C-alpha cells in the first residue's frame, strides 16, 4: 500500500470495533477493499444489572465538580460581601500536587483539574511535589522518582498561562555533610526550573 491513497473506516460499538481499509482513486472515491477486521470484547457493564462499569466513577466525578463549583461560587460571594467585586479572584486555592496525587483517581485527575483551576484564575500558589503512589500507602519522593511525570504538570501550567507562585515542598533533607537543607532545596528547585524551561521551549513558535 506504499504511495497509495486509502481511507480507514471504523464501526465502534459497546462490545466490538469493526474496521476496514479502502483504496481510493485520485478523486477520493473508493476503488477497492484492502483489509478489514473486527475485535470483539466483553461489554463494560455489570452482568446482572447492565449498568456501565464507569457509572460509579462518572457519579463521583460529577459530585466533585458540583462541590468545586459550589466552593467557587461561595468564594465570589465572600468577595462581594467584602466589597472586592468579582472582576479579580482574590480568593483562590493553594494547589498541592502531592495531595492530589495522594488521593489518586478518587480525588480527581491532577492534570485536568489543575488546567481547569488555572484557566479560571483560581490558583494562587502551587506546591510542586511528587509521591510514590496513591493512598492507602505512599512515600514522598524526589520529583523525578514518583509515579507522576512532573513535566506533564509543568506543561499544564505553562500552556494555561499560570503566572502565580510555584515552589518545591517537602523536599528530601540531606545531611550537613552533603550540603544540608540548602542543597536539598537547590537540587529540587533546579530540577523544577529545568522542567519549566523545557515546557516554555516546547511552547515557543520555533519549537513547532
Q: In which range does the helix fraction lie?
A: 25-40%
Low-confidence stretches: none
DSSP summary, beta strand count: 8
- Count up the helices: 5
Morphology: extended
Instruction: Give the C-alpha Rg.
Output: 24 Å
For the biggest sheet, the summary is: 3 strands, antiparallel
Structural class: alpha/beta
The CA-CA distance between the termini, in Å, is: 30 Å
* Strand order in the largest sheet: 1-2-3
* Average predicted local confidence, pLDDT: 84
Assembly type of the chains comes to single chain
H/E topology pattern: EEEHEHHEEEHEH
- Which band does the percent of strand residues land in? 15-25%
Can you give a write-up of this model?
- The protein is of the alpha/beta class and 208 residues long.
- The chain is built from 5 helices and 8 strands, in the order E-E-E-H-E-H-H-E-E-E-H-E-H.
- It has helices at residues 55-81, 97-103, 110-119, 150-159, 180-203; strands spanning 6-12, 16-24, 30-40, 93-96, 123-128, 130-131, 140-141, 165-168.
- A 3-stranded antiparallel beta sheet has the order 1-2-3, with no helix packed on it. It has a 3-stranded parallel beta sheet with strand order 4-5-8. It has a two-stranded antiparallel sheet with strand order 6-7.
- Strand 2 (16-24) and strand 3 (30-40) form a beta hairpin.
- The radius of gyration is 24 Å and the shape is extended.
- The mean pLDDT is 84.
Amino acid at each position: 500500500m506504499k504511495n497509495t491513497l486509502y481511507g480507514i473506516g471504523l464501526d465502534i460499538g459497546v462490545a466490538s470495533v469493526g474496521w476496514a481499509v479502502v483504496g481510493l482513486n485520485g478523486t477520493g472515491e473508493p476503488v477497492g477493499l484492502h483489509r478489514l477486521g473486527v475485535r470483539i470484547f466483553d461489554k463494560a457493564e455489570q452482568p446482572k444489572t447492565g449498568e456501565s462499569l464507569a457509572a460509579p466513577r462518572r457519579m463521583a466525578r460529577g459530585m466533585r465538580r458540583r462541590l468545586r463549583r459550589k466552593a467557587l461560587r461561595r468564594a465570589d460571594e465572600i468577595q462581594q460581601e467584602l466589597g472586592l467585586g468579582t472582576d479579580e479572584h482574590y480568593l483562590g486555592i493553594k494547589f498541592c500536587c502531592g495531595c492530589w496525587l495522594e488521593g489518586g483517581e478518587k480525588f480527581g485527575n491532577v492534570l485536568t483539574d489543575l488546567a481547569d483551576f488555572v484557566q479560571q484564575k483560581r490558583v494562587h500558589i502551587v506546591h510542586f511535589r511528587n509521591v510514590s503512589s496513591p493512598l492507602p500507602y505512599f512515600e514522598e519522593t524526589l520529583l523525578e522518582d514518583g509515579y507522576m511525570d512532573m513535566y506533564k504538570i509543568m506543561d499544564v501550567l505553562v500552556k494555561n498561562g499560570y503566572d502565580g507562585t510555584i515552589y518545591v515542598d517537602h523536599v528530601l533533607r540531606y545531611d550537613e555533610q552533603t550540603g544540608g537543607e540548602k542543597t536539598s532545596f537547590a537540587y529540587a528547585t533546579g530540577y523544577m526550573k529545568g522542567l519549566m524551561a523545557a515546557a516554555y521551549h516546547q511552547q515557543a513558535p520555533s519549537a513547532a
